[in-house]
Amino acid sequence: MTTSAIDVEPVAAASAVSARPYRQRLSDGSRDACDVGALVRAAASGDQYAWNQLVDEFASTVWAIARGHRLNSADAADVFQTTWLRLLEHLNRIEQPERVGAWIATTARRECLRMLRISKRQVPRDDFDFVPDPVSFAPPDRNLVVEERRHLVSQLVDQLPSRSRLLLRLLSADSPLSYKEISEALSMPIGSIGPSRQRALEQLRRLVLRAGLKSEDVFVF
Predict the structure, then answer these.
(1) Rounded CA gap, 56 and 71, in Å?
(2) Are 74 and 14 contacting, i.e. CB atoms less than 8 angstroms apart?
(3) CB within 8 A of 151, min separation 6: which ones?
(4) Residue 212: which of 156, 165, 160 has the closest Cα?
(5) Best mean pLDDT range from 2-16, 67-81, 207-221
(6) Closest to 186 measured CA to CA, from 160, 166, 204
(7) Measured by CB atoms within 10 angstroms of the end CB, which terminus of the chain is less buried, N or C?
(8) pTM, 2 dp
(9) Packing angle between helix 190-210 and helix 179-186, nearest 10 degrees?
(10) CA nearest 163: which of 181, 180, 183?
């Protein structure tokens, strides 16, 4: 079986397949790079389960990058699908399978830029020209309040400079990349990721306060 037998439709169907020793977590909750490499090698040989697990592992990263480039829903979905198609095409040629996360993030970023060029949209300016109105009412359902606040803060993230916006999106993804993978994807020295994150959070905190929210709401998105 080869990659031609893989169903590229990115649906994680792990629950429908018996467990295999591909995706494991270390004691601190971080991903084991060796297991990711095993997933890539297995998917390259035509293992559908391994492919589904790769998609499940890095789907949030691809969506975070698309969101960081302010793509609309249709364009973001196109980038999502194309990124996985590119991976399928290159599975047999990836020299360092354990670093596939950086490869996926870099590919997704390139696809976002391609989409922006195709749609003839300009890359968003690095200024703060919009502040959404703060929530003016308090629904009785606490979950609704939290969701509304998260949506508002997410809007504010979109007003950050492009590098800050993309960095925060990647760091807040459900399965965040390692600093090394983010460094490769964004061409950013590892040592500057922490300070850059702090600067981005401070910029976001100022926007949050201007929107009438509390400083601790910075972390709800």
Answers:
(1) 21
(2) no
(3) none
(4) 156
(5) 67-81
(6) 166
(7) N
(8) 0.66
(9) 80
(10) 183
